[in-house]
Amino acid sequence: MLKHLVKKVLKFMKRKICVFCGSSNGLKPVYLKTASRIGKIIGKNEFDLVFGGGGTGLMETVALGANSEGSKIYGVIPDFLTKYEIPMSNINLTITSSMRERKAKMYKLASIFIVLPGGLGTLDECVEVLTLIQLKQIKNKPVVIFNLDGYWNFFFSLIKKMIKEGFLKRKHLNNFIEFKKLNNLETFLKSF
Questions:
Q1: DSSP class of residue 88?
Q2: What's domain 13-191's architecture?
Q3: Per-residue pLDDT at 106 exceeds 80
């Protein structure tokens, strides 16, 4: 009886992956293609998706891919941003009063974070999550930085510079995982 109840609870509390990525397509077709494939990998591995809620760019592409493989889609967008980015339709949408509230909601929902190419918003979300992990405010939630075509190389160089100059401890390199290949990401998700 207890086993049956535990199974029901675990099924109800499906794991969620929060993806940070651009609200635009980027210049290389590989960005959209990979975003779609990552969305599908998320769904095939029985995760739900948490994302910024926008109906454009890599955000929408990841969500469509995940949805096509059975994921529930949770979008979180601040009210003011709906004037600039049309929220994706037919998803579980939460509209917040601020960016700060948006990010806090996304962080709380997620079991894993995946960072794809994007702009300043993506960089902000990635750095904030890594900072909160460093400060032990987020625990036991892996961060995967998907370094597609070397997109994040400069970020990794900056992290190494911070360590070299004594502003970041080497142990914080353990707060994220870099993947360059989809099969490595999929193997990781299967083990989670």
A1: P
A2: 3-Layer(aba) Sandwich (3.40)
A3: yes
